[in-house]
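Good morning,

Both structures are done.
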Amino acid sequence: MKVLTLLLCLAQFWGCQAAPHLPGLVYRELNCDDPETEQAALVAVDYINDHLLGGYKHTLNQIDKVKVWPRRPMGEVFELEIDTLETTCYVRDPTPLANCTVRQLTEHAVEGDCDFQVLKQDGQFTVLFAKCHSSPDSAEDVRKVCPQCGLLAPMNDTKVVHAVDVALTAFNTQSNGSYFQLVEISRAQHVPLPPSTYVEFAVAATDCVAKEVTDPAKCNLLAEKQYGFCKATLTEKVGGEDVAVTCTLFQTQPVPPQLQPDGTEMSNPTSVADSALPPPPQADPPVAALVVGPVVATAPQASLPGHRAHYDLRHAFMGVASVESASGEASHMGKVPNVAQPSIVVAAGPMARPCPGRIRHFKI
């Protein structure tokens, strides 16, 4: 009996010694479909689209997890896991995201998986940390819903590059405006019936007139960039091939103002060489769809892009060194904000709320 009493005393003593002296940090665990959570997630999606260097805009599909941590001296940090879906809007397309169509399963959909930390301070949301990757739906799943649909093809596939060359040549041949150069191949699919290659690619206007170009290598992109986006199908036929291409031209983007040493803006000076150039042709409307084809054409081989079938979101933030938080502190990409340390005991928040949240479109 004395031994048992001694053991109980030792156990109580050990428990008192092992108990933490400082209270842990407490996080809020919101519902994944809570309006405040969704507001933070939408800011995260806007951040993705604002920093994409190529490919297509993404839209929110589902919020998987959310924790809200206190941030000293003020504010809160939303720790989010979200899923996105690729839309059909090219990244430079001015169409508002709300009006962009989500790419369907039959078109070989692409899903994004992202981790974000978003600061909320004084009612404003600011992204502190972002990490994403994306992947296409499996070929097996596409075949289940559409056995004859085309699958994504590598962008440096020989047939893909040839289809883009032929389509761009056909567009420039029938254009009455600027000569356009290839910016990137954005998407490609091999279609089984009829045997054809479908491609989507981005272009930009040059200082040459399409009808007068003799040496494309001497054409330079305009200072005020005008981009376009093209969709084309190259169909294989006995004795040749037919191409049908549609290009939509976006409004010209003004040249960003340059800063003088004192911080004031100055207008971009026009050099002698620039003044000698002909003004950009106005035959093409700022935003218009131009359709040509079917035609038979040949074109020089374009430079091959990387061996990939889609624009992976893991490359979305290349070249973005840091962002400024609402408190004025610089939070470098890849650096987790100082909201909690693994060595600190974290007290559980309220009872877990429903997560993951609702699926807005479909799940891959």
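Second structure follows.
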Amino acid sequence: MASAGDPMRRDEIRPVKRRVEDDLIVRPGVVGVDIGEKVTGGRPTGHPAIVVAVRRKLPADELPPGQLIPSEIDGVPTDVVEEEYVLHPAVIPLGEEDSDTGADPGAAPPLARTIVGGLSMGPCRPIRLAPPDVPQPGDYTTAGTIGALVTDRGGSGAAMVVTNFHVACVDDAWSVGDTMVQPSRMDGGRCPQDVFGTLARAALSGRVDGAIVELTEVRPHENAIAGIGPVRGEAEAAVGMSVRKRGRTTGLTTGRVASVDATLSVNYGNGLGVRTLRDQIRVVADGERFGDRGDSGAVIVDAARRVVGLYFAGTVDGRVGFANPIAAVLTELDVRLCTRPPHQRAPGLAERAEP
């Protein structure tokens, strides 16, 4: 441990945080446990702490003793912040696909002949939803983002892409073989004319929210992310790392890795309920938003275009985003990133790569 007066290191705090997070995350109103800088009176102190996120901060005298967050745990200071976390797919009632989708003008083009990362996608099947997940019960269509090109570790050689479980599967009624359309039905995609692949496998675990779509031979594909360029491999996220992502809704956004220790509880609805994911990457936007609804499934890359995470959720205002560590995603889904130059080129997409 650090000496008196010296701030503790993250690696010293991590075992304490992991030991107590199960107790903290189940307390009423708690949605996250992380390691971050303690803020007092609105000012950063320069001291790392166990940060507990709650939907609403209440005065201590309004909380039962068992729900109070102690000021320190095993010598580690704590901090309580007010945040709310949501998944970031886009959802609209079936039949309203021609309405304004909410995508920014700088977002990746919704219709593209060649499949690359950063494009709009979604399932062909309508999704039956009911309150409180949506205002009115009925059939809905959903949209997310294609992450990156991957291939089966088993050696089949099939071309695939990675995205989120809640983008491709959505609920507990999914099946292997479900057809996926690019662009999403919300963005004008038609089934079966614009089908680009079928659901091959998926995982929703304590660390990964992922799915694999096997591509059809009808649509060409390229190992690239629209507006960013070819994927150069994978890397481990590190605190302070500059990152970017290309999402269906917000387009190209940049940010900074603030933590690799985030534990958060998110409501998956649709019969799946609240799920807790651990050891997630927390990214703070350089601008107003890092992500928004419809960006789920995008990959997050570092300055060298190496994939570090799979984006899946964020704060309600989009200022903070969360991603699964890419190594965990690839392991659980039994795939590897494609890094070889593609056989087919996509003029107007990969050529517009940014440095």
